[in-house]
Specification:
Elements (H helix, E strand, L loop, with lengths): L1 H24 L16
Length: about 40
């Protein structure tokens, strides 16, 4: 029984970790450039 609780806890923590990683990669402003801005037109 305890392994089920452990499995659910691990899945939940990994889910929160993945969501926080994804949130860190999304820019705060919609028009913010991702990576270096191109200098040539």
């Amino acid at each position: 029984m305890s392994w089920i609780v452990l499995a659910f806890g691990a899945a939940l923590s990994w889910g929160l970790y993945g969501a926080s990683l994804h949130k860190g990669q999304v820019p705060r402003m919609p028009d913010a450039p991702i990576g270096p801005s191109p200098t040539r037109s």
